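User: quick one, fold this
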Amino acid sequence: MYRYLVVLTIASTLGLESWLTLFNNFAVEVVALKGNHVGLIQSVREIPGFLAFLVVYFLLVVKEHRLSALAIIVLGLGMAVTGLLPSFSGLIFSTLIMSFGFHYFDTTCDSLTLQYFAEEQSPWVFGKLGSLASLTNIGVGVLIFSFSPFLSYAQLYLLIGGMITIAGIWGMTQNPTSTNLPPQRKRMVLRKKYWLFYFLTFMAGARRQIFMAFAVFLLVRNFDFSVREITILFVINNALIFFLYPLIGRSIIRFGERKVLSLEYASLIVIFLAYATVHSKMVVALLYVLDQVFYNFHIAIQTYFQKIADSGDIASSISVSFTINHIAAVVLPAIGGVLWMIDYRIPFVCGAVFSLISLMAVQIIKIKKNV
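Assistant:
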């Protein structure tokens, strides 16, 4: 199962990162879209994440590892057709297909990791998968940088989509499952005893949306970062995360979820308040890098859930948690945009408040220290 998830995680990361890298240039240079069109497409991209709870119903007719591979095939096909549909409606369609594939793989990947690896193993597995994803992100940059002078957008999308689809087809031929696992409930599960997991998941989604919607915008709008400078930060982030992600996993195993999450939330309070107050270009670049690093501590929320969950609830609860996480993605960017117009500092102060609330909430976690 580890090898299976490694291959499909690399394919999934290749798809999302390629889409993010190519989208804006393709939308402007080829499709000639305006800002309102781009904003709408970005909102559409989050719809499949909001609908992740439907995964549990797909599991009524297909095994979870097969759904994981099928999602990668869908992601690959969505990427492959993007360049062949150079219109607003075409981009809406291909974005939906791509995003359903990505989000449904992400959901099943987390679920399979929690089911197949013991409590002392899953943080390490999450860490290794995250590290490989960061390495893949760097590879995507090299791939696009190397091939873009010679290939059209349509050819780039076909090349990348084809590679992803092949990985998904490989996954469909594999059977990494075990017959010794507890059966998963094939219905939506919402339990009162999981309330803290749901709450931390929602707050993580809210903070992430503030970062995604406004952190880079702050760097460009207020500090005049160029495309090349943003790219350098991107490479630094992924290089650091490649080395740090396994350490995060081992830290969860050694110190437990409460301490790791407390460090994340306390750090994010400082980072968000600093976003709102600093005037140094170098300092805000450092904040951006630290923001990315501490965000990856969120895997402790998943491993915390593994320790409190009934074994048959994992698949359903993880799919529900993805929906909860994406509630913020639907509403926060729009609300934050209005607040930015009043004062750009307000969204970041809100992020600090969200982090403070999470810091207080995580103290409720009562899990014995792992040694």
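User: anything notable?
Assistant: The chain is about 80% helix and 0% strand.
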